[in-house]
Each structure stands twice: as C-alpha cells, then as structure tokens.
Write a structure and sequence with these properties.
This protein is α/β, with parallel strands linked by helices and 410 residues long. The protein contains 8 helices and 25 strands. The longest helix has 19 residues. The termini are far apart. The structure holds flavin-adenine dinucleotide.
Length: 410
Amino acid sequence: MNHLVVLGAGTGGTVVVNRLLRHIDTMSWNVTIIDESDKHFYQPGFLFIPFGMYEPKDIVKSKRQFLPREVRFIQHGIEEIKPTVNQVLLKDGSVLHYDVLVIATGVKIAPEMVPGLVDSGWYEEAFDFYTFEGALQLSQALRNWKGGQLVVHIAEMPIKCPIAPLEFSFLADWYFTKRGKRDDVEIILVTPLPGVFTKARANAALQKLLDEKRIRVVTDFYTERVDGTERKLYDYSGNSVSYDILVTVPPNTGDTLIARSGLGDEMNYVPTDKHTLQSKNYENIFVIGDATDLPISKAGSVAHFQAELLAENIARYINKKPLEPSYDGHANCFIESGHGKAVLIDFNYEIEPSEGHFPLPYIGPLSLLRETRLNHYAKLASRHLYWNVILRGLPIPFVTARMNPRGRKI
Ligand SMILES: Cc1cc2nc3c(=O)[nH]c(=O)nc-3n(C[C@H](O)[C@H](O)[C@H](O)COP(=O)(O)OP(=O)(O)OC[C@H]3O[C@@H](n4cnc5c(N)ncnc54)[C@H](O)[C@@H]3O)c2cc1C
C-alpha cells in the first residue's frame, strides 16, 4: 500500500482530499489527513462576529463531517516533517511514513512579534479579529464602547485575506451609523502599504469608498512597537497614531512546524512552484493555501482553486506523468462595504482586478469592482456554499479554478 498524507484539515486540506478521491485508486493508496483540532472555522465569519451579524454557531463545525469515509483522520499536533526519509513526526512521538505529502497547515497570527502589543491592554483595548477568541472579545468591547478613536491596523504584509481590515473599517462605519454613534467615532486604517490595495484599479475604487465613508487612511506605516499604556502605535520614523480601541492584524506566519522541519523561509512559508504547487525542494511534497510563499493573496478562494488543480497534478505524479503548470494565481474575494453592499474582485498572477461580470462573462449576475447589493447577498450566501459545496469538493456552476478573463475591461 502507498501512503498519501495531508497535513492540515482546514480549507485547502479538506477540499484536496475530497477531490483526490476522484483521481486516485484507494485500493492501492491510503489517504490520511492530520490536524490538531476537530473544529473547522469558517474564517470569513470572524469579520461578522464583532458586529453581531453572525453567532459562533454559524461559523464552527466538526472537521470530521467534511472528510470522506475512505480518508483516515488523525487528530493530533504535528511536530516535524523529515523530508529526507519521508516521515511525519506527531507530537505524541508517533511516526508516519508517506510516499506523497501535502502541506496545508495555513498561517497563524503572531502578536508577540510586535514589541509591546501583548504587554499591556491586550484583549482590553487592543484586539485581533483573525481568531475566534479575538472576534468574540471584540464584539463585547464594541457593544459597550462609548466612542473615540478606532484604529484598524495591519502590522506587516503579507496577511491572509488582505482586504479583511478594509472590510472591518467599512462595517465599523455601518455599525456605528446604525447605532447613531458615527459622529462619536473616528475610524482610521493604518497600513504599511503605499495604498489600501496593491493593484492600481482596485486601490482607486476602494480609496473612493473609504473617502465617502469618512475613514482616514495612514499609509507607509512600518510598525516598530505598540505602547499599550499610552495607547499608541509607533513606526520606525518616530510617527505615532493614538487609539482608544486598536483592532490589529498581527504578522501572519506559517506554523513553527515548518521551521522545525527546515522547510520554510523566514516567515515559515514553504517555497512552492507557482504553477504546479510542487515544493521547490522535494518532488514528492506539494503545498497548498496560506502555507505557500506564492505571490498571490492568502485566501480561501485561492486554497479552493488550488485544491482542484492540485488533486489532478498529484494524480499525474502518482501515475508518473509530467505535472501541468495549471494554477494561474486565480483569486476571488467579496469585499463587504457596509450598509448592505459589497464589491467583488477576481484576478490572477497576470490580470489585476478590473470591471466586468462574474461568473458569466457579460452577464453576471455579479458585478466586478462595483459596489452592489447583489454582491452583498452573494457574500452572505458564500457561507452556505462553503459548508455544503466547496469543502465537499463539489463544483460551483460556472466558477472555474482558472480565471476566465472574458469580458473584463483589462
Ligand atoms: C478574518 C478573516 C476573513 C477572511 N475572509 C476571507 C474571504 O472573505 N474570502 C477568502 O477567500 N478568504 C478569507 N479568509 C482567508 C481564509 O480563511 C484562509 O485563506 C483559508 O482558510 C486558508 O486555507 P488553508 O487550508 O491554507 O489554511 P487553514 O484553513 O487555516 O487550515 C490550516 C489547518 O492546519 C492545521 N494546523 C496547522 N499547524 C498544525 C500543526 N502543527 N499540527 C496540526 N495541525 C496543524 C490548523 O489546525 C488548520 O486546521 C479570511 C480569513 C480571516 C482570518
């Protein structure tokens, strides 16, 4: 029997095992997936928890229910990968052999990497919304808040879902407007980037929305430290931004398991071929989702599109056929802009977000790079699509793993 082992049963790991079973013979291949937790979080829902739009029960389910019966699930922490001897070491000391390995261990936030951030006021005046716990604590804090300076902060790039801090700012505008408190709250978005998005057209469209909603943006802010007693952020040039509530996105790093295994860069991201998703260093290791070092957004949509193409490439590898350079960097994100509207962007390595329609060229029904009510309803529907279709590896009508550029104003 041959062994295919998948590390991480989040978005990428779950979709890839579901897709793999259509491509490989389970009589000769044993498929195992390992994760330290049985809780599968719908992470885009972390954004809605602080504003009371979702409750915890909406965004957490058991991982097991999304894994096919033929796949063995091991719930355990992973200590190390030994790529020269094709072994995975678990935290309890047990050892698994693999013939093919898929790394899908995602990224985690590392607030301790920002000097001062967790020293004083952490989860009192300073919060994250990239964890379940952080989102819950923040919902409590916003509910009882009388107003002041709300600073939404990106410590450094890259982060997963890079538009989530913008969405948080937009939703804060809507939330405090609805409560009649908007004039008591100043919303400031602080970013190390020169703009709010890395691509010109999307940057212009999003900056216009931020201006309309009176959200101030501080760019090129390279955070040196946080002083929780003074409630101030400092950058390396000595500039500071004061806050009453800080909503920060701390640095996002790959799991320390990657460093222990000697497989990552300085942020514990695994060097990965951008088109085949094969590890750059070991031919029987493949990497998917946030764990890669690829020059594309770390997003669930990316992990999903990659999983579809990766399952086919693993089947080619097993059957000793050449790999296809099939992944084109396709990413797709809804940007919730508040007041019942959202913007949709769709792009890849070569083509930046631009106007057009999705998923059907010229028809839609969704509009690209435009704020519409239908986009907002589609964003809300995505949660059901995620649990019932995407995670199970089922096709979404008209949505392709490779980007369809037809009809775009490129
Ligand atoms: C606030 C927020 C909003 C977001 N919004 C969107 C959105 O609107 N659209 C979008 O496309 N994406 C969004 N994302 C991003 C999306 O959730 C992630 O990009 C996606 O989940 C990545 O999938 P993954 O499989 O790479 O990692 P994950 O889904 O994070 O899975 C990694 C798994 O590996 C396991 N693991 C890690 N290390 C170990 C270890 N040592 N031992 C055992 N198990 C381990 C973890 O337990 C986890 O289950 C958002 C994320 C956040 C935080």
